[in-house]
């Protein structure tokens, strides 16, 4: 009987997202792009080839004997940025910084490159979106001129590699990865194939030379990082740089960090002199007023290891126009607010069924952790009853559907921050632990009891 011959089937790959298919289709089922699938050759045949031992890059050693000197973080001199990174820039690391246009990414990274040039030798900034003259003007405005800071404007990967060989920098900033293309790879400029090829090439060079690479990435209209998901897996650190356009506050968060915590936050304020770190940003999220007003409550949120004071405001108005009551949210989770509304009405006895409820955070900060449930509930109840909460009070705790108040993490640090900021009363879940001096703590087991006590 003649042996069975396994025929290879042609493979087709999308030039936009990298999706592979066994047949040609007019539209990619993954990214919905038209005419992006092209044949790339035959698929692998069914047999498994034998794998023999080959050369190794280095012999295995006991883990305690592995050297750490080349992997220690080097501080940049910008405290808030180093806090997010876990101490500073690690040699050979690849960072991806993403954010909306105009949020201040290029300005912050130019300042980072300037600080590294002062302390650690040559740095190279390659811009694919601006000319060197435009970058020079920004550097003059923020005072980032230095003889060890080199600028280049390139959109070809081969030219970028030539600059790296010539300058031999300790830090490379590429602004942005979507504007640089590799001539060795097919695909549209800024497409998934090109972005993956450019990032892979720079990652290999960073690891071999011990050079830190910072890639600036674009974001989609939904706020997600543009490009293939493999780009986030390829890099070592993913940083999100965001902020409201009408506010000067900018938040830097690490969503992935192989060298430190992935939940830290850095606060910056943007102005004429560039992006300036704000080591104590709690005052930015709390209103300053002469007298207390109804519908306002201060809470303490945890951003990584940092406690931050944040104010929640609410407005409850009678729905005079008929129809369904409105529920509008800014800076809070809409689904969480809807749940808290129901708990306040059902367990707290506050009628809200025929009222419009509006809730927002102060200062443009986004509050998503469940520890703010208590403050949101008290703000809604205060607005509905038109009675202000006591002066100098903070509240935090997770509210359940049955109205119980649950414990949250970091209660000690939250209470210490509230006492440091001058607050004298804290409404917290049961069993908070040690209480700082000068702070009176009221333990609340359920939402109904705190509403009866306050109102």
UniProtKB/TrEMBL annotation:
The keyword Metal-binding applies. This is DNA repair protein RadA. Residues 356-455 are annotated as: Lon-protease-like. Belongs to the RecA family. RadA subfamily. The middle region has homology to RecA with ATPase motifs including the RadA KNRFG motif, while the C-terminus is homologous to Lon protease. Residues 70-219 form the RecA family profile domain. The gene is radA. One of its GO terms (cellular component) is cytosol. GO terms for molecular function: ATP binding; ATP-dependent DNA damage sensor activity; ATP-dependent peptidase activity; damaged DNA binding; serine-type endopeptidase activity; zinc ion binding. Pfam families: AAA_25, Lon_C, Zn_ribbon_LapB. GO terms for biological process: proteolysis; recombinational repair. It comes from Klenkia soli. InterPro entries: AAA+_ATPase (IPR003593), DNA_repair_RadA (IPR004504), Lon_proteolytic (IPR008269), P-loop_NTPase (IPR027417), RecA_ATP-bd (IPR020588), Ribosomal_Su5_D2-typ_SF (IPR020568), Ribsml_uS5_D2-typ_fold_subgr (IPR014721), Rubredoxin_2 (IPR041166). The keyword Cytoplasm does not apply. A motif (RadA KNRFG motif) lies at residues 256-260. PANTHER family: DNA REPAIR PROTEIN RADA (PTHR32472), DNA REPAIR PROTEIN RADA-LIKE PROTEIN (PTHR32472:SF10). ATP binds at residues 99-106. Signal peptide: none annotated. Coiled coil: none annotated. Plays a role in repairing double-strand DNA breaks, probably involving stabilizing or processing branched DNA or blocked replication forks. Keywords: ATP-binding, DNA damage, DNA repair, DNA-binding, Hydrolase, Metal-binding, Nucleotide-binding, Stress response, Zinc, Zinc-finger.
